[in-house]
Description:
Blueprint (H helix, E strand, L loop, with lengths): L1 H43 L7 H5 L7 H18 L3 H5 L9 H56 L2
Helix pairs in contact: 1-5, 3-5
Amino acid sequence: MARISQYLASIILVLSVVSVAIGATFIYQAIEKRAWIEEAMRVEKVTLGISEAEVEVGNVVDTAEEAQVAADIIREHRRGIAPTYQSLLGGGKYDSTKPEHLSYTQALNMENYLYMAVLAFGVTTEILGTGVFMIIVGLAFAATGVVLFELAKRTQ
């Protein structure tokens, strides 16, 4: 029985190391991707939805909350051109020479870019949380493995 306990403890300790390593990788990736997203957004220099005072000090849309506000403003403006894409076309085909068609699709593109940023921020937050959870589970596995080894020693 002691031998089985030692074997089980070894498996649990290996799982703990794997869990901590994968958790650390998740945390690293989440931090790196979030920084990349923020920098990519700063390069675009979108200021829609940010106060004049913040724009004057160089603030631009580079957070999920700011991207959500800007995308919602663009959606409202886009719907001012036409409530839906189908109503924009009016039964016809898209014509990029028509200013309202071009404005609508440019707004749609920017709106999607900002909503994708909101999604990306959410995913990186989730991955960060998963990484933290995996490290906690790994530490719990390690403690369990150590306890099993000690119990196996006492039963020999």
